[in-house]
Amino acid sequence: MSQSTDHSIPLLTEVIATPAAAETPTPDYHQHYQAEPAQPFQPQYQPTYGAEPLPVPVSPPQPVGAPVPTAEQLLHIRQDIQENVMQQLLGQVDNVLDRHLQDHLAVVLDNMADILKTRVRASLEQALAETVAQALAEEMAKFENAKY
Prior knowledge:
By secondary structure, the chain is an all-alpha fold. The chain contains 1 helix and no strands.
């Protein structure tokens, strides 16, 4: 076998020469930078833990530039609030009344249904007893007539 080597691809053992760079002056950054001497950090405020707190100046609240409503506007606002509250309360009252009426009517209707059922049953029992007695009397009369 013949080995052909490509001379454009460097081998791991070859040293590749870097092309000569054009001579350009490199700036010396150290000549422009001069370090200032280090000074220890001194905070301006050093709290003492047993000392009284420092007073903080507080300015009073500034009045808001909202216009003061007139007496007529206040009356209108009051009426609106009163109407809204009344509507909400009446809605709640309606719900409570409906619930209570339904509960009480359910009890009353159950009682009335029991009473009505008892009366209808008694009337039906009496009507059936009369009908059976009449039918029995007719059959007995036919039987008696058949003997003679």
